[in-house]
Amino acid sequence: MPTQAEIRQLTKNDNPDEVWAKAIDIVRHINPAYEFTQVHTVFADVLRLFSGEFPGYCAIKTPYHNLHHTLDVFLCAVRLSHGVHISGNPLTDHEITCIMLATLFHDIGYAQLLEEDFGTGAQFTLTHVGRGIKFMQRYLQEHDFPPELASPVECLMSSTNPGLAFEAIWFPDKRTRLLAQIVGSADLVGQMADRTYLEKLLFLYQEFSEAKFGNYASMHELLRHTKSFYETALEKKLDGNYDGIYKKLTFHFQNYMGVENNLYMESIEKNIDYLSKVIALDETEYFSMLKRGGIVGQYQTPVTSANNS
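Request: output the structure for the sequence above.
Response:
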């Protein structure tokens, strides 16, 4: 049985080297001979984009959609891929590559060109997936990746677009749709299972305010909306569009950690239960409930409200 400390480490993805080492180990449980060169090239360049070392681009500055978020989604997708694979639906090396590339690229559209260096990048909230797909297509071509990667990776990245209905995405076959369900599920589950998810919603409110997205009158309103967002996401997306594929994480944890639990979903449920206590307080009190990670101390109330023009 894993210890509580080991369980907490599942979503503590703040060290890229550790995340990469975990991904390698899990993928080798799928195929010990998997060749990591292509994915590692992208992984290294995504780190450079976030740090401001990628030619022609500023460092990615969005406070919520940061490197930690991308690593959360990436590692959750790797774990879910393993669970799907050992549940009786084996994945090919090509499919594993598409999943990993899509999760690494899925929020890269927040990256700003040097001449776009204003704001945090959150102004691209509604267009970031499309921007990210264009970046991915250009990147794969310029780095001589196999041409057959771009099209499926685009489909998988599209599954993370909150402004695009899953049923509106064109998939060339059932397998690509399955891979998109894995990526879309990991995007939701990976971020919501973070132990500091509720605190990080303060940063999401900052992004929404900058983007003038959502018409949230206050941070407290966004927190109240999050509870219904989770219920809707579970019913319509995770159990609906994505066919409950997140449940395959149980196979991963059983095989990899010897525990018959979906540790991600248990973490999410704890977050949502605690959220119910937070939103029961009025707007002058709820900050006292958000204590993890020192995040409240980093939070800056947006100058412009999200519902202002």
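The domain at 4-298 is CATH 1.10.1300 (Catalytic domain of cyclic nucleotide phosphodiesterase 4b2b).
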